[in-house]
Structures are given as structure tokens and as C-alpha cells.
Amino acid sequence: MIPIIQRNMGWIEVICGCMFSGKSEELIRRLRRAVIARQKVAVFKPLIDNRFSDDHIVSHSEQRIESRAISSSADLIELALESHVVGIDEAQFFDEGIVEVAVRLANMGKRVIAAGLDMDYRGLPFHPMPHLMTVAEYITKTHAICVQCGNPASFTQRNTEQSDQVVVGASEFYEARCRNCFQPPLGEPVNRGKGETAKGQEG
To answer: Which top CATH class is 11-143?
Structure first.
């Protein structure tokens, strides 16, 4: 819940979690409330995210809101100048400059809401999300349901042998896992899900 803040003061909200945890859905919900309140809203996503639509943010539950795809965080400032609220989806896919952009927008009196993965498929921090969370006033951690056991899930399991950090996809490549069911890839620095970082192992 966002407290009442004096008018003309900006701030940053971050919605983070694993895949299928409702991040985009929560982002869309907050942006729609701002629209109902007759605030000017600008919504952005990285150009790389074209899984469901080129000109909308679309959640896994098929909620959607019109957005603009951009290739660089530097494009955001000018495009968001006339807005009261700035929404950013899949923030982990932007360059590190997104952090400075978010801070500048907040300092200009705008409400910035960014959603993204906090960990990659290895269970390691997905930059620039950690830095973005550091400068945010409000952080919401969302959870999915583990497809293996039904417990709360905070890890994203990749079911493909591709080793690039960024492989755009949905349920055909990924599923949500809890700490116990998460199986990191072999032979890479990983977070095993039980409080230690090491080379990936079986099981």
C-alpha cells in the first residue's frame, strides 16, 4: 500500500519476483488506477520483449495496457516528460542507465513504477534490478506457485540448455520453482536456492 505523499513529490516503486508471479499484472493494475484518477501515464518496455505484443504490455493472465517499446533507457526521459506516472515493464532487460533515468524522473516529481525479474535462471541477481531496488522507496516482491510441489516460488527454472542470460520466452522455456525444487544449470556460477553460491550440481 502506497502512503499519502505530498503533491509534486516523485518516487520509485519496484515490483520484482520470478516469472509467472504476477509482476506485469500488478504493474498494469497500478497504472490503470492512475488512468482512472486522470493522471497522465506513459508506459514503456524494452524492444526485445515482443513475446505477446509489440505495442502493449501483456501479462500471463492476458491483462494488457498500451505501451511503447524502446531500445535504450536514454529514450525514456524525453518521452516521459509530460507524464505524471511512468510505468516500465521487464526492467531487467534495460541497460544500467535505467537506474539514473528512474532517479531523474522521480526527482522531477514523477511516480516511477518498474517491474522485472530480480534473479536470472541461475538464481543470481539480474542487473540492473538490484541497483534499481536500492534507489526505490517501495519494493513489492511477488511470488508464483512452484509447479513441482505447490509451495511459494521465487526462482525461475529454465528448461533449455541455452546458456545466455537473456533468452526471451514464456512457459515453453521457463517455469516457477521454490527454493527446494529449483535446479540450477550445470557448470556455471549459480545460487543453489539454499543460501550458497557455487558451481551448479545435480539435484
So the answer is: alpha beta
Run means of pLDDT, 10 residues per run, the chain, 203 residues: 65 97 95 97 86 66 82 93 96 96 97 97 94 98 97 92 53 87 77 50 35
pLDDT at 144: 97
DSSP 149: T
Residue listed under C-alpha cell 522455456: 173
CA atoms within 13 A on the CB side of 136: 21
Sign of CA dihedral 159, 160, 161, 166: negative
Nearby residues of 176 by Cβ (< 8 Å), 6 or more positions away: 18, 19, 20, 21, 144, 145, 146, 147, 153, 155, 156, 157
pTM over 0.85: no
Q: Residue 100 catalytic? A: no
Which one of the listed residues 25, 26, 90, 175 is annotated catalytic?
90
Rounded to the nearest 5 degrees, what angle is found at the Cα of 169, between the Cα atoms of 166 and 175? Answer: 100
Question: Cα–Cα distance between 128 and 30 in angstroms, integer?
Answer: 22
